[in-house]
Amino acid sequence: MNREDYDLIIIGTGSGNTIITPEFDSWKIAIIEKETFGGTCLNRGCIPSKMLVHVANTICEIERSGVIGIDSSINDIRWKDISNRIYGRIDPIAEGGKEYRENLPNVTVYEGHAKFLDNKVIEVNGNQLFGHNIVIATGARPFTPPIPGLSETSYQTSDSIMRIDSLPKTLSIIGGGYIATEIAHIFSSFGCQVTILARGDRLLRAQDKEIGLRFTESFRNRVDVHLNVDIQNVSEDEFGGVSISCVTPDGSMSLSSEMLLVATGRVPTADQLNLGSTDLLTDCGYIVTDENMCTTVEGVFALGDVTNPSQLKHSANAEARVVTHNLLNAENLISVDLEPMPYAIFSNPQIAAVGATEENLLNTKIDYVKGTADYSEVAYGWAMENSDGFCKVLACPHTGKILGAHIMGPQASTLIHQLIQGMKFGQGVKELSRGMLYVHPALNEVVEVALLKANDELH
User: Any catalytic annotation for residue 440?
Assistant: First the structure.
């Protein structure tokens, strides 16, 4: 078998593709991608899902417009037009990115599955590639739980459901996390009868408990939610749909739906790379890296969802920038800094968070004070007639420094940024609440009020 030598091999074309800057023009580079060029976020994750969320949010606003004195209705939801608008924009980006890389004189694109043969040797499509430097950025894939009958039953995952040909009348979702709730929001808004079957005692169990409880209460107004569910079996029914048997606190239950979505999390793809033939180490399935994004093999870097349980695009992009620098500056390595790690859940209500939950602080016996403000306490919240949104700030009782912040409601993913900045640069609740003016009457006053309440609790 012939072996081709490269200065750099990149496996995965999501954030991994952003590594190549003009400074690499003199490097001989190979890029390997087994699926669609551009990775999960562009093709089957963040971008298409949020474009669908925007449509769903618009529908929800129309449907609740009666509370502000507007009588309106939705005449039709044109799924094909919605889908074509999204993928008519996304697919050309993916194809264009692939063509651009293929046309670079120093880059070779391989379409296929990468498998390590040694620390620096990779096989793809029968070709053997040697890389003086290698970057692993292969991401994660949907987790398939060991439910009896599932492997013999047709079902969707987050990778596939956004590209279905037509909307189902009924959709069952196994899972209660952020993927399950985002997709439930989308399809329930589009008129599907959605049922969520969650293993936990509330939706979004990884969130601050108060957020999870209040979210679950609100979400039940639009989606049929079953908690503490033990799935016993799934099978295809006589009508081409799916039958689900499960046990709930109220007893055994069976239901049928036209379509099933399994949304029980995502797992890193490291196990698909034949890492047993290398000295690369993994921990709970994730490739082990240090603060410089270096693995346990010199010259091999890894980034993104294959290394980071947070599985967030903004963290992967930050890691990619570090890898770019460190590939070019081997004698002057820089470290990645992902703290504090913010995130958002684009369901309805929307959620955003940064730092510790109240349960984290209680379990670790860290003293704290909190300030909580409802959207309905501020003028713009009144204008919106919002009854379930709120902001919670957790702070050190002695210094006022922010330990965590959690927001549920419209624009949460934007409102959280002031609190991220406060945590990052050591600004306490006093500085953030009284150290500057807030635009009135803007929605960010809900953050101001929460900060003021936390400030009042300082020792």
Answer: yes
